[in-house]
Structure formats: structure tokens, C-alpha cells
Amino acid sequence: MVIKAILMDLDGTLIDSIPLITKSVEQTIKHFGFSCSKQKLRELAQLHSRDIAYYFMDKNKKHFSPHDFVNYRRKTFLKLLEKKQKHWFGDAKPFIKKMSRNYKLAIVTGSRWIFIDSVFDAGTKNKLSAIITSDDVKHKKPDIEPLEKALGKVRAKKDEVIFIGDSTQDALMCQRFGIRFIGKPTGISTKFQLKKFNPFLIANNFDEIEKFILNL
Questions:
Q1: pTM to 2 decimals?
Q2: Tally of structural domains, the chain
Q3: Which of 34, 100, 142, 207 has the fewest CB atoms nearer than 10 Å to its CB?
Q4: Per-residue pLDDT tens digits for 184-209
């Protein structure tokens, strides 16, 4: 098996941002006068802000501005992000640095460029062939458009690529597009949830993933 490129999710995979994402959703829901269970909150945290707004509009038969909801959540998340000193998982940047010597690397994320610019340093960014954010596509995860765009950037075929992600959204996107998926249950989805998508591998850290890829 020849692997030419490694695609990676960001939140929950490279960056320990899921607690911040969940908290920003929780605070935004509360600000707009709604509430939900912890399990539902975890499910909603995987969605885009506008979809979360529509969920509460439909569920409660109430009308409010989705635009205001999106903006409030974005501002809340950025405030939480500014307070957090450590963003990256400890083994994430070393993994990127080492794997970039032999493979083309790209990030495919549901986050926006404003978040990318907040957490990336130039040295890490320069190791990547591409970063595809939700600002760069019309159809976001779990649609296959982000993957299509990423493959064009790394100039690789489906069977020459592996995707590393932490969520069922990542897994579903890979399943739809026919790309091998490695599940990393350090973010939004559990190992049990990821197993339902028959991943190539489930690993708790990048050391395991590195050894697996190098032995292919």
C-alpha cells in the first residue's frame, strides 16, 4: 500500500478544543433561553452554529435570528480560546513535523480561518500542503466537498490517502468518499461510536498512528 498524503481534522484531533466548543455551545444556548441534556449538548457540539440554531427554533417553535446566534457563539468561543494557554495536544506538532518529511499533509476542518490564525504558528503551517476550512467550501462536513478539495491540493488519489479524525462526522465523510479513516477518540466521539464506521485503525495518540502508517 502506497500512502502519499495524510489528511487530518483539527478540533479534537490536533487541538484540544472540544471542551471549549462544547462550552461555547452551552453558553450560547443558555443566552438564547434554551436548555438541553449533556448528551444532546455533546451531539449538538458536532454541528455548525446555524444548524444548532435551527434545531432550537424547530424544537421550541420560536423565531430568532440565526445570524445573531452564530455571531454570539463565535465571540464566546474566541473569548474562551484567548483564556486557554495550551491548545495543541502534546504529540501533535512533533507528528506533523516528522510526517511532513515523507508525506504531503493537509488539514480538513469545520473551523474557520479566524480560528486557524489564532492557534497556528508559521513553522507548523509551513509543514502543510493545504488547510481546508469551512470558509473554503460551500458544503461542510460530513459532505465530501472538503475532501475533494484537499485531494486536489495534495495531488493524490483516494487510495493514496489516510484521514485522521475524532468524530463520526469525519468518519461519515470518509465513508461517503471512500477514503481510509483512522479514528482518534480524543475529541467529540467515543471509541464505540467511531468503531461503527469500520475505521482502518483506532488510536489514542499520534505515536500509535505514526507506527501504523510507517508499517503499511
A1: 0.90
A2: 2
A3: 207
A4: 999 999 999 999 999 999 999 999 99
CATH number reported for the structural domain that contains residue 22 in this entry: 1.10.150
Query: 114: Cβ–Cβ under 8 A, 6 or more apart, which residues?
Result: 74, 78
User: Nearest Cα to 161, choosing from 98, 149, 123?
Assistant: 149
State the DSSP H helix or E strand holding residue 54, giving kind and residue range, or none if neither: helix 49-60
Q: What is the pLDDT of residues 31-77, one digit of tens each?
A: 999 999 999 998 899 888 999 999 999 999 999 999 999 999 999 99
With beta carbons less than 8 A apart as the criterion, state whether 7 and 182 touch.
Answer: no
| Residue 37: domain span | 18-83
Residues 120 and 53 in one domain: no
Residue 69 and residue 92 share a domain: no
Q: Sheet containing 130-132: which strands, arranged edge to edge?
A: 130-132, 104-108, 5-8, 161-165, 180-183, 201-202
